[in-house]
Amino acid sequence: KVIPHGVQKKFFREFKKKKNNKKFKILYVSKYEKYKNQLNLVKACHNLKKKNINISLTLLGLDRNKNLLNSDLYRFIQKVNSKYKDLIIIKNFKKNEKLIKIYPTFDLQVYPSKCEAFGLILLETIASSLPIICSNYPVYREILKKNTIYFDPDNSDDIAISIKTYITNFRLKFKNTKNLFKISKKFNWKTSSMQTFEFIKKI
User: Fold this and answer.
1) DSSP designation for 35
2) Order of strands, sheet of 108-111, starting from the edge strand that comes earlier in the sequence
3) Selection from 6, 35, 1, 7 nearest residue 113 by Cα
4) What is the pLDDT of residues 54-100, one digit of tens each?
5) Which of 187, 80, 171, 169 shows the shortest CA–CA distance to 126?
6) Burial level of 112, CB count in 10 A (0-12/13-18/19+)?
7) I want to staple 184 with a disulfide (CB 3.0 to 4.6 A). Which of 32, 45, 126, 171 is the partner?
8) Of the candidates 122, 107, 128, 116, which has an alpha carbon nearest to the alpha carbon of residue 45?
């Protein structure tokens, strides 16, 4: 029996069109592990910035410990930021209470992870009506279906093209985000708990 996680009610928020800000703010919520694939996302954003596209990327969840400071990721971020100040922003992980307030301040979540047991961050994102694009892996397709742009996480150019599509195509971004918000409502803790107890009772 497969019983998916739910989403806290606090995250649910209808999509609202934002004012046209000068800078397109991208978010990736994840701790640092190589399979989380932050490096290729940073490379993608660097490529877009070189084409004079006004963006920033916030990597939320990175602790400045030895693993990060000695990584290729951190060295590349330092190199990129020396040319484009504050293109890549590193922040420590926040508790869920803070995430609820953080999601609405961004324009897009990009999720390039190459391995995931279950995409709880994806659920919180779509419940918050934050547009999202992600890796073309089955675990993400199980949740998002056809309502997003999937990219090859090993190809930074493909990631960059996918990001640019959502920057330039508001209609597609709006349609997908609205559809994903409807999907998110199916993932709630009441349903999860009811199915769990029903299964226990049955066996």
Assistant:
1) G
2) 88-91, 55-60, 24-29, 108-111, 132-135, 150-151
3) 35
4) 999 999 988 888 888 999 999 999 999 999 999 999 998 766 668 88
5) 187
6) buried
7) 126
8) 107
Whether 138 contacts 114, CB under 8 Å: no
Where do the H-state alpha helices sit in 150-188? 156-168, 170-184
**Matching residue, tokens 């892996």:** 137
| Contact (Cβ atoms closer than 8 angstroms) between residue 5 and residue 192 | yes
Q: Is 8 left (phi over 0), alpha (psi -120 to 50) or beta?
A: beta
Structure tokens at 49: 């910035």
Structure tokens at 34: 């190589």
Place of tokens 């508001």: 170
pTM of the model: 0.90
The angle that helices 38-50 and 156-168 make with each other, rounded to 10 degrees, is 60
Give the three-class secondary structure for 85.
coil
pLDDT band at 16 (very low <50, low <70, confident <90, very high): confident
Q: pLDDT tens across 94-137, in order?
A: 666 688 889 999 999 999 999 877 778 899 999 999 999 999 99
CA distance linking residue 188 with residue 171, whole number of Å: 28
